[in-house]
Structure prediction request, 405 residues.
Amino acid sequence: MAGLATGPAQVAIGKNPERSRDHNRRVVLDIVRRHGALGRMQIARLTQLTAQAVANICEDLVSEGLLMEMGRLKAGRGQPPIQFAVNPAGAATVGIEIATDQMVTTVLDLTGQVQYKRIRPLSDSTPNKTVPKFLEELERARSSYSSRLLGIGVVMPGPFDIDGMSSVGPTTLPGWGGIDAASLLQDACGTPVTVENDATAAAVAERLFGAGHAISNFCMIYFGGGLGLGMIHDGAPYRGAFGNAGEIGHVVVVPEGRLCPCGHQGCLERYASLHALHEKFAHAARQIPAYEDVEHLYRQGDPLVLDWIDEAARYLGPMVAMLENILDPETVILGGALSDVVIDAIIGRMDRLPTSVAGRRMRALPRVMRGQTGQYTAALGAAALPLFDIITPKLETSLPASRLA
Prediction:
């Protein structure tokens, strides 16, 4: 099963009983979440745990409200087995995306179903202006659920804490450089807050709810204000040493090209981002289109939109091949703040991808796919972060305890 640690991994974590117990709980929750209602013996077979271990875990999870009994399945002779399913009302998570021009809020129940979503425009995304609005949106969201809150996930555009790149330019958040965003927001709301790069959170959303739900290794190119990359490796997000892995927006693709606020020239973000599209409209003295207007203009054959799609595809194609050669993903997913129709148009222009290690004759997946979580991708990923921590097996728990301290 994708993202499922069994066999040797369970033996290794068994050296630490507490970690073994937490890991096995995640394994059970993950299996039930992905397969639907299951009996104990089915869970034991899928997880490779003993029947007694599964019985104990199910009892604990039911008592905590994370699983619920669904009655008995009538099949064959003997006592029908009790079925267990994830309890939607067992807990909720809140996700908030803080972007340069808007704040997006979502609430998920324990099964990952969206219970609430809202977009609020932002004219000023500096900390002093953003924190009060964050609290207001959080208060609005709280009225949508009555179950206990597992946590709050917040996503922001990266990179984080990099001289000359953080809080510089129109695709980053001004004034956040050198600020511990998680501590600031957590102190303000009094609830644990996890802060993540927006592209990484988007990849988590696709892993749990979208195109990547059955894919253990994929890359996601995320269209926000700028352009980022989220990576899922062996079912878990790959963040890098300091949370900045995947900053492809500042890879130079046109030597001596357009000047970028990071100090380089010809960065990918200057050609293949939503901000690059907006620049084309600004230079033509035309009104910058809203999210829903870009698709309408594309369908009308607007020359600026068509030119941007061609340009984005021209530079994204070689980037896809580079990612394939370096990371060998099963597929590359495109998603974010563009409609399905526009993303499909970009993918359609990338029909002649450069040769790479992905050029296998027997491919199970196309080299490039469209994401399925839409405009709310990053905010869904934000809400999924606390959920991911309790329902997804962590492969790193197979390491010796000294490596995990």
